[in-house]
Description:
By secondary structure, the chain is α/β, with parallel strands linked by helices. It has helices at residues 15-28, 43-53, 62-86, 97-107, 112-123, 138-151, 166-182, 196-213; strands spanning 3-9, 33-37, 90-94, 130-135, 187-191. The longest helix is centred in the middle third of the chain and has 25 residues, at 62-86. It is globular, with a radius of gyration of 17 Å.
Amino acid sequence: MGLFITFEGIEGSGKTTQIRMAGGYLKKRGVPFVLTGEPGGTPVGTELRKILLDKTSLALSCRTELLLFAADRAQHVEEVIGPSLENGEVVLCDRFSDATVAYQGYGRKQDIEPIQAICDFASQSLISDMTLLFDISADKGLDRVINRARGMGNVPLEDRFEKEHLKFHETIRKGYLALAKENPGRFRIIDSSQDIDAVHREVCIHLEGLIERRGYAVQ
Ligand code: TMP
């Protein structure tokens, strides 16, 4: 069995940059890995992602949104994550079930219990070996998103979630921190307001500890 490591955080937390850098680190160390993410880690998921993030899908109901994220995950576990873990690879995944609890549960203020049951069903009860939570205040995170959008010549925010107001993202952050408190064994909280290289060094320390404990031959 491989290792399943998830990367979580609010918008602008820098997790997507960090997951790429983590992939570079594993490559350098000769550890077999797969880099993937949700929503959109499979061809079916790519179609679901378009619906989920489309600015014009504002009429999507909370339950529909939840079930589409769950459908994306079911396909992703079946097609990519499960087989890669069986193959002994380290799977680095940009968001997983914690994102659904944080966004659809805390963010959309839906009951957590049925959401967790739906996530369990979709993921075949797969739980990460380690979840890195890139923690940053919602206002700093959104500032980064706005600057990134401006840098790409895009003044309006890019998708449905990034358009949500500050309070929504603050609630999601609280949700993630609550999840980390409930699951101290698998969560590692990283202060993501630090510069990119400092954050990366912390990620490497966590990765190294885990891959060595699991007996991967590290170069
Ligand atoms: P990304 O920006 O990390 O690619 O994620 C896309 C958006 O989807 C992001 O705003 C978070 C949101 N999301 C949920 O609301 N629930 C989920 O279960 C997942 C995986 C993502």
